[in-house]
Amino acid sequence: MISDNQSICPKCGGQLKYYDHVQRLVRTKFGNKKWVAIRRLRCCKCHAVHRELPDFIFPYKQYEADIIIGVLEGLITCETLGFEDYPCEMTMIRWRLFPPRLFLLKAVPNLK
To answer: Where are the alpha helices (DSSP H) in 24-63?
Structure first.
């Protein structure tokens, strides 16, 4: 779930309330890593728990959205300085073959 200031459950339309938060490791440029607090919200109606992701993280991805977008747009390759072995070449190939759904929907709508 991406934060867009809505407090409505995407499953049932119920109201979401703050539940807790979890730490998530995000891999950034030049091989750096940082921990980010991700809020979790619980639906008052169906009791489903949803994570509120900041816009610099794609769901189910460890790398920053800027890195993934750079790879998909061809700006970052295995020869790009600072990214020679981070992310690895196989990860870049996998991103190109199966781009994140959110990337296709929001980040670059003309790639559909």
So the answer is: none
